[in-house]
Specification:
The chain is mainly beta. The protein is built from no helices and 11 strands. Helices cover 0% and strands 49% of the residues. Strands 2, 4, 5, 6, 9, 10 and 11 form a 7-stranded mixed β-sheet that branches. A 4-stranded antiparallel β-sheet has the order 1-3-8-7, with no helix packed on it.
């Protein structure tokens, strides 16, 4: 069964850090671009970060640049999102997605079920 599973979410205070993981089962992530998206209550889903299949190309939403880092572990078939200096506005359900290229990420065929990140004191 092909699926993506996110983990690592939780409750953290403002200024804190979390590392989200996106693990694949049933297929290898090696040749896929992987993106992270988030959706806050009452808001549209928004792009957060993306990494190319080679791992060389990355891109970030302006709101997270300098605070979040996306990386991939080919041996572990996992992609990570390191989130530092978290703010209350980062509170959302975070999803990962896999697509053939960065350009096709919005039409990604594979999506995870999401993991909740809550930033609150």
């Amino acid at each position: 069964q092909v699926q993506l599973v996110e983990s690592g979410g939780g409750l953290v205070q403002p200024g804190g850090s979390l590392r989200l993981s996106c693990a694949a089962s049933g297929f290898t992530l090696d040749y896929y671009a992987i993106g992270w998206f988030r959706q806050a209550p009452g808001k549209e889903r928004e792009f957060v970060a993306v990494i190319s299949g080679s791992g060389i190309g990355t891109d970030y939403a302006d709101s997270v640049k300098g605070r979040f880092t996306i990386s991939r572990d080919y041996l572990g078939n996992t992609v990570y999102l390191q989130m530092n200096s978290l703010k209350s506005e980062d509170t959302a359900v975070y999803y990962c997605a896999a697509a053939p290229t960065i350009a096709t990420m919005t039409r990604a065929p594979y999506w995870g079920q999401g993991t909740q990140v809550t930033v609150s004191s």
